[in-house]
Amino acid sequence: MTETRAGDAANGAPGGGAALRGLAAVDEVLRQPAVAALLEDFPRTVVVDAVRAVTDRLRTEILAGERSVSAGELSPEMLVPWVDALVRLAVRPSLTRVINALGVVGHTNLGRAILPYESIDAMAMAAGNYTDLEMSLSTGERASRQDHLHDILCTLTGAEDALVVNNNAAAVLLALAAAARGGDVLVARGQLVEIGDAFRIPDILRESGAELVEVGTTNRTYVRDYERAWSERTRAVLRVHSSNYRIVGFATEPSVQELARLAHEHGALCIDDLGSGALADLPLFVGEPPVRQSVAAGADVVTFSGDKLLGGPQAGIAVGRAASIQTMRKHPLARALRIDKLSVAALDALLRLYLDPERAVRRVPTLAMLAATEDELQARAERLRESVAAAWPEAGGRLSVVPTVARAGAGALPVTDVPSRALAVDPPGGDAGGLAERLRGGEPAVLARVHDGRVLLDVLAVRDTEVDELAVTVATALV
Fold first, then answer.
1. Cα–Cα dist 476/479, whole Å
2. Residue 143 in 3-state DSSP?
3. Tens digit of pLDDT for each residue in 375-424?
4. Residue 4 near residue 16, CB atoms below 8 Å
């Protein structure tokens, strides 16, 4: 059997032409028994498109000199495995389950918060059934989807009114559009931050139709700075909590109470963007202003995320004074930014857990992870080490439990070290990068850190139910 270089085909050599002439036609591949079986299980268009994709790719690679082929390699029978793999890939859902061994609880790239089972059950019910999403069962008349979240949010935050949209950036945008469109908004220079995916507070402000007026300096801002910047165009004062950064040292800024008092004296509004939204009372949350505290301080609108420290679905929550929230509710943008029914169900179930704070810490995964003790984490890491060692006979001294510093993630608690533990794996041959790559390709996929030639599997965000499964995936990647 002679081998033909694709480069010959590209140069017009006879061998290359022969290889291309040997490339199976689409109809020939479709007549193969294994492909006929695929046509019984999958849509015809998907199978045909897969066959065409395979033949087109091979033709392109041969002409570009990127593939060496032998006579018979491009027969219909030889193409069947590629077609089969491509068809199954096309119909498989894109989202893949991941075990998070990175030591970042609310990892934005991994979907942030893991929902409590109560929220998952509520979403399943709402997804598989008709519900009273916008229907009053007592009157039979149309109602608002916000009714399902209004009372529980007011109870938990002490606010007069509440409104929920699809994320916190949307909540800020809606608050500014409703309060200050066509006017000025005063913001401390040190609070003009960039949030996730390169979105910046000034950009959001601009899209609201309000004009940004910077006051103070990067590190120090006083009430008098706001007073000097005030004009007849000023409609609101915006405070942006530094949820994903900190200015330390020689720094100061007015309290929410001072800003609210100033705004109200001039007939304007005070909007407080808290970002993370801490409702739980955990030691790690000391640097996060409680939502209830901002409401009590007089802020007209307080916004925060549903999927950061709250531990729920993606959502933007606005609570505060009834007049301000009602203005937001009536704004045309409110419908464009509204929360969907599955998130309503998940958030409703989550918030009701907060009625019992101790239960919330136990049941909400984000809180449970951040509240885990070092003894609990040590035990979990030791269990992982023992399971990997049992499945990997060559482990020897290549496995050890080490202390690590984890993070809350999702732009929350930026300077707070979360003590954790990790299983450190010293891979054979020292190929830590290769091991990390094989872990990412495992089932389930595993994400871990590479540090000093070792792979670190931080257990902070690894649930107890995942330890044995994680051990099997690690051992498989090591063999």
1. 5
2. coil
3. 999 999 999 999 999 988 888 789 999 999 999 988 788 778 999 999 99
4. yes
- Residue found under tokens 């993070």: 407
CA distance 357 to 276: 18
What does the angle CA 386 – CA 390 – CA 393 come to, to the nearest 5 degrees? 125
How many other β-carbons are positioned within 10 Å of the β-carbon of residue 212? 19
Q: What value does the CA radius of gyration of the chain take, rounded to a whole number of Å?
A: 29
CATH 3.40.640.10: does it fit domain 117-363?
Answer: yes
Which has the closest alpha carbon to 338: 145, 169, 115? 145
Q: Which two tokens stand for residue 378?
A: 């040590």
Per-residue DSSP letters for 108-124? GGGTSPPPPHHHHHHHH
92 vs 72: CA distance, rounded Å: 31
Reading the block at residue 82, the tokens are: 């590629």
> Looking at the domain that runs over 370-478, which CATH code has it been given?
3.90.1150.180
> Which are the contacts of 452, defined by CB distance < 8 A and separation ≥ 6?
none
Condensed to tens digits (0 to 9), the pLDDT of residues 104-159 reads 999 999 999 999 999 999 999 999 999 999 999 999 999 999 999 999 999 999 99
